């Protein structure tokens, strides 16, 4: 398995949201298409945006904590028929528990719990080289945006 970062949300030409998972060196990216509501929940967590009432992923995290469980890690495990699969690994006082999940839900939970996200080795073949996705000018613009995002996140803490 390799650990990945949730780089952000992008949108395809049709406006469908895509989670961008990058390797630690940010040289490869695994794009996973998700639903609008899940993308919103991930964006809220990425942006550290306070919401007046808990979203579904906040509720699940709170329920886990109330039962003494902690979201230990998330693993994107498989790709079958153009559908990605994931697991949420819970750590309980005396044992662990693995839950089947959609990658979007798993990532939304991982972000809220500050839990690591992993991709299985067999899925790394589906990762794209970042340098091949954009021309040099677009890459330079994206780097500026990523730097501004990092500075903004630092200012929140």
TrEMBL record:
Q: Which residues form the BFN domain?
A: 1-131
Under InterPro entries, the record lists: BFN_sf, Bi_nuclease_dom
| Molecular function terms, GO-annotated | nuclease activity
Q: Which domain of life is it from?
A: Bacteria
The protein's name: BFN domain-containing protein
Q: Which organism is it from?
A: Desulfofundulus thermosubterraneus DSM 16057
